Protein: Aromatic-L-amino-acid decarboxylase
Amino acid sequence: MDANQFREFGRAVIDMLASYAENIRDYDVLPSVEPGYLLRALPESAPEQPEDWKDIMKDFNQSIMPGVTHWQSPQFHAFYPSGSSFASIIGNMLSDGLAVVGFSWMASPACTELEVVTMNWLGKLLDLPEEFLNCSSGPGGGVIQGSASEATLVGLLVAKDKTVRRFMNNNPDLDENEIKAKLVAYTSDQCNSSVEKAGLLGSMKMKLLKADADGCLRGETLKRAIEEDKSQGLIPCYVVANLGTTGTCAFDPLHELGPICSEEDIWLHVDAAYAGAAFLCPEYRHLMKGIEHSQSFVTNAHKWLPVNFDCSAMWVKNGYDITRAFDVQRIYLDDVKTTIKIPDYRHWQMPLGRRFRALKLWTVMRIYGAEGLKTHIRQQIELAQYFAKLVRADERFVIGPEPTMALVCFRLKDGDTITRQLLENITQKKKVFMVAGTHRDRYVIRFVICSRLTKKEDVDYSWSQIKKETDLIYSDKIHNKAQIPALEQFTSRELCEKSK
Amino acid sequence: MDANQFREFGRAVIDMLASYAENIRDYDVLPSVEPGYLLRALPESAPEQPEDWKDIMKDFNQSIMPGVTHWQSPQFHAFYPSGSSFASIIGNMLSDGLAVVGFSWMASPACTELEVVTMNWLGKLLDLPEEFLNCSSGPGGGVIQGSASEATLVGLLVAKDKTVRRFMNNNPDLDENEIKAKLVAYTSDQCNSSVEKAGLLGSMKMKLLKADADGCLRGETLKRAIEEDKSQGLIPCYVVANLGTTGTCAFDPLHELGPICSEEDIWLHVDAAYAGAAFLCPEYRHLMKGIEHSQSFVTNAHKWLPVNFDCSAMWVKNGYDITRAFDVQRIYLDDVKTTIKIPDYRHWQMPLGRRFRALKLWTVMRIYGAEGLKTHIRQQIELAQYFAKLVRADERFVIGPEPTMALVCFRLKDGDTITRQLLENITQKKKVFMVAGTHRDRYVIRFVICSRLTKKEDVDYSWSQIKKETDLIYSDKIHNKAQIPALEQFTSRELCEKSK
Structure:
């Protein structure tokens, strides 16, 4: 394919993507395919000869599109949003066109430095403590990771390295492996599965402490767990606080957890994967009270901000903590001496290679402006509140917990089984996509405003579908005198998460 | 930015990227900027108000482009290639436009299934043993990881999990942490830094065994290390064999290492990040003799194949090994039962989230066809051989080791210091970018055909620059009667790698 064919193909795809966004309401949010549909539809081997781009587009429309779950559909209310925007698509096009690998400054100075610049911009917009910013006088700074999962694991590995060093410095006779075996991490039982997985991957016991009735991990609970473990000779090392849990968007009180971590010299990592974007707006910043006690903070720009996956924005207070843990030294590229201020980002992450991801963050922040991003967040919250109003006006439903951010959890008053039946029926129709959660041991349906394209009329449409299915269930019930089966019991955590 | 503005902006960027590829020879491969140039050039904060896309393009051209190292330039001969192509850029545009997150089948059936299909296609093209393919009767399969670093770490963590299970099954009284502390991994001292880092991140001692004079890890060396460690009560667990080392593209003899690993029940992971793409061509497949003994294999489609980062193609013989180690169970999404044949890919990787990366692999394989991809590999090797011929015709130079793939290592006969001076002078001129390596304790310059755009005339140009700088060094030497300083000694490994 030469440059001119690319111009042709590229323009066709630009047009197609623009039309996709314009006409996305024409698609059912959920696809009507069975497992294996594409394995059967496509050839078993790659073509021998080059093919024409028009054939590829034809197959894309005929075979791929029917199997797509439309995350950008205004009727997608499941999990949490998958960030996307025209600005971000363009940023990635620029990145792919240059196709640089930014593992060191020299490998592409602009790649490293634009990441420093944009992470300072975003950090300031979120009003993070200055210590987290590269432009402060200290060794803090931001880095784009591939996912919140990765950020949580990076934090855990760095905390492990730091704690082991501290213990060995104080007791040079101690065995490194013995120390490692005693390390413990803590989080809430409302955490995302990726937090539990970080413990698994990083070989550290991750204790899921019981959250309170509102889904929050309280300081007292953490304090008790730490004391108990210390009395048994274990070494508390890492705490992951959740600002906006996946299940119900609950906020752990950082002002309770933080001082405990500071006192005990425990690395506090803040997982604000979804809700962190709300700190763009001053009216939500009270939810991060206590942030000054944390060592690292992550929010997924690719979630609630309109930046395409992957763009996990992570900040640390001390970049040396990371580079000490991750630097596998080679003297290969000694031509340019860089510092913590112009980072060699390969030492800030697990892999060596890295794309020019800052470009999409840059195009998004410029095309939207700070004002545009705040408006995006506020509008999504307003739409959720509008939905909550609709639900509240229908006496068959109850809302709980009190909605936060762009998430509304609701259920039928008549119980868990009928609520689950309702969700199943709605999902079967494929017009609206929501998933379940639990709150105070009750089964709830999670409704999240996800798509940047969602308008008031879309919420009306989703609600009309929910109402229609509810009417159907109740009319069936009356006709068939069906009994609601006994309540099936789920633990809170079993149903609480998925989407990071 | 609405859909129409996106059409405008998008077309402008398509044109710009097409022109970039057409006119890439107008740029110096290396930028002329100093550390901090962009931090000084850009505003300290994000704009408050939305900006016009034309201003963004202006700043891209004025501020970003001058700081770009042009990895796609025909004069980029450093590290290894960063894969890219028009077809791949388009594939990513499609992926970004849909912006799905494919952590489960239901989250986007097409995303999961196209990955299964394309990984089967590629596995067949590489002639991997059938057991690695999803379309075989067994539990094997392919998965796209973010980087070879990640694949190596995934292999290590799975090997650890499997070995610990085996030991605990055989000796239920053993302490899990004690077993973990005894696990050992092996690789060659020519390995990429990411392999060493995998040991660091995965908390497993990674022993870098001495390669032979040709840079290959021999079976005898591995056998001796294993026996020694076993006699000390350690548990050999994981071996990373390198097919195409970063330094000199040496190939570890799998037919020597493989049987040892099989006999000792050690997980053998094959890191063919760069050179694996050559197995598209039957004439190079002898280099993977013994592959049947391996448990996992990775090659970076984003390296020597024209697929944009990130697309690390990894295959495993037994998918259950991975899912057992990585599955953090939730019953949240129990609506669709999938199997190892229709994988829930979140259990095949470290993070939870994942993009629709199979799209770019699909567009590339279709636009190139198997023939086109083979031609790409063969042409790049031919160009390297042509370069080697040019070097051999100049008596001041010597080549070594014998070139493999698209890499030629060469040095001045007059010694390491003058060779290093030559590389420094060339780099300073910014017209040609190469980096150093070592071979048999001599400093060598690595010349890799990297860009898909490189033609014979480009090789002529690069060689003319190398010759010009060589002439200058020798004329200076004669005029100044400068002495060549004593040979500075580097260890092989210190200089061997960077680019994965």
In short: Confidence is low (pLDDT under 50) at residues 330-335, 482-500 of chain B.
